[in-house]
Task: structure prediction
Amino acid sequence: MYFESAGKLNTQKTIELAIKASMDRNIQDIVVASNTGYTAEFLKGLDKNIVVVTHVNGFKEPGVMEMPRETIEKLKGYGFNVYTGTHVLSGAERGLSRKFTGVYPVEIIANSLRMFGQGVKVAVEISVMALDAGLIPYGKDIIAIGGTGYGADTAVILRPSHAATILDTKVKEIICKPL
Result:
């Protein structure tokens, strides 16, 4: 499915399509980007391994966690794994590119994925992060849900690889994304 525009207004439909795909294909692992808990809440009650990947601590402001501790605890109460870690497609490399005004290989990967949309880039990134954290199994297809700004507008079936072998990641199917 292709959405006419990007953003939060597509969240409910994106989640519905992702859940349907997970049921149709018997995929047990869903990784979702969520900075405030809004998107993750749509997966409440689903009997799957749900991994919520947040923005890195300090994303908006040094030393400040964007997702409130109470929200993290609430999501964990649903049985979700909540993961906060260095963004695999930016992290330290972004610091180098800002300091030295250059372009570096990981940023090229990120920008190449953005050619398919911001949500596809996010889906790949959070899946690799979740795999590296040991929160999803290696060698299995998963569903990853990302977006453009707030909410979700992209769902992807993929088989992530570790950050050390990121180019072995396989995007199998785009379930939905903005045009």
